[in-house]
């Protein structure tokens, strides 16, 4: 995307074609998902025409766009559950911005991904921000692969989604926008961030299994780990002692705290290589490994 989008900001919401595109995209979105309770990222949000509609049903919306003037127009709408980010999407932004830390149930990109410098790299970044089972939905102008102009073919979208690591995806033509020369079709791509099971490991001997110290622990508390997008801190009672343990569960549940009071299996005395900068000043019980609940 380019700073030249600033030039369009003041008149964007009065452009009939833009408003119609946003409205039709929203209608097609409702045919796919129920937004109630969702956390949503609107990538390339512009002045928030789609963000505003989604915010009426979703739990929260993060609206991201590199155009400061577009974001300024959206800020003037004063939407209570919409958080604004005026920036390009980058690995550093994902690591440092608190509004991106917890991941999203849904990411939408309405007429945005055709304008990014690297479509595939952007898809990979967006996939990082999806919770397990989360959806990425994009709308862009439909065009043939070799044809001039901005947009994608269905084949190009499906190929890029596969390369980005998605295993469940589809495309469709949900609507068209009329113009003086006829109409322009819009292609819709949908991808789900599914958890791909790891391959079964080699069999171990019973003697190796006996070396494992597997214990049932009661999870007393679940709390945030500062500056981490995946980790939560678990305080676990093993009966004879209590330990604090890191678990990569933040993006696996909408509310990780719901496992408080439940019991789980833990492998005790497992050898771990844990970043000391994360553990600084805390008694983490680094010889434990969280294994399930």
Mean pLDDT across all residues, rounded? 88
**Termini separation (Å)?**
43 Å
Count of β-strands: 12
| Helix content estimate | 10-25%
Order of helices and strands: HHEHEHEHEHEHEEHEEEEHE
Strand content: 25-35%
- What is the gyration radius calculated from CA atoms? 22 Å
What is the topology, as strand order, of the major beta sheet? 3-2-1-4-5-7-6
The residue ranges in which pLDDT falls below 50 over 5 or more consecutive positions are: 274-293
Structural class category = alpha/beta
Q: Looking at the structure, what is the overall shape?
A: elongated
Largest sheet: 7 strands, mixed
Number of helices: 9
Structure description:
By secondary structure, this protein is an alpha/beta fold. Helix 2 runs parallel beside helix 3. Helix content is 24%, strand content 32%. It is built from 9 helices and 12 strands. It has helices spanning 9-12, 16-30, 49-55, 68-75, 91-96, 119-129, 154-163, 206-210, 276-279, and strands at residues 39-43, 60-65, 82-86, 104-110, 130-141, 168-179, 182-192, 213-224, 232-237, 242-247, 263-268, 288-292. The strands form 2 sheets. A 7-stranded mixed beta sheet has the order 3-2-1-4-5-7-6. The longest helix has 15 residues, at 16-30. Mean pLDDT is 88; it is low at 274-293.
């Amino acid at each position: 995307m380019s700073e030249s989008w600033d030039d369009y900001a003041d008149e964007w919401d009065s452009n009939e074609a833009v408003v119609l595109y946003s409205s039709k995209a929203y209608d097609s979105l409702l045919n796919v998902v129920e937004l109630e309770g969702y956390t949503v990222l609107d990538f390339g949000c512009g002045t928030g025409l789609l963000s505003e509609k989604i915010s009426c049903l979703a739990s929260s919306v993060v609206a991201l766009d590199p155009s400061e003037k577009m974001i300024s127009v959206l800020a003037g709408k004063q939407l209570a559950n919409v958080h604004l980010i005026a920036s390009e999407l980058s690995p550093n932004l994902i690591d440092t911005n608190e509004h991106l830390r917890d991941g999203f149930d849904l990411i939408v990109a309405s007429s945005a991904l055709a304008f990014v410098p690297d479509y595939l790299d952007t898809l990979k970044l967006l996939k990082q921000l999806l919770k397990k089972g989360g959806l990425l939905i994009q709308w862009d102008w439909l065009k043939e692969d070799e044809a001039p102009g901005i947009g994608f073919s269905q084949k190009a979208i499906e190929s890029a989604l596969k390369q980005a690591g998605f295993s469940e995806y589809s495309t469709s033509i949900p609507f068209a926008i009329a113009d003086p020369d006829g109409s322009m079709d819009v292609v819709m791509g949908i991808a789900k961030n599914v958890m791909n099971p790891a391959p079964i490991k080699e069999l171990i001997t019973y003697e190796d299994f006996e070396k494992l110290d597997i214990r049932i622990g009661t999870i007393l508390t679940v709390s945030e780990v500062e500056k981490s997008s995946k980790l939560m801190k678990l305080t676990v009672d093993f009966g004879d002692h209590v330990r604090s343990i890191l678990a990569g569960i933040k993006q696996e549940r909408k509310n990780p705290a719901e496992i408080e009071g439940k019991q789980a299996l833990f492998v005790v005395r497992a050898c771990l290589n844990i970043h000391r900068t994360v553990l600084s000043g805390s008694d983490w019980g680094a010889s434990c490994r969280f294994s399930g609940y």
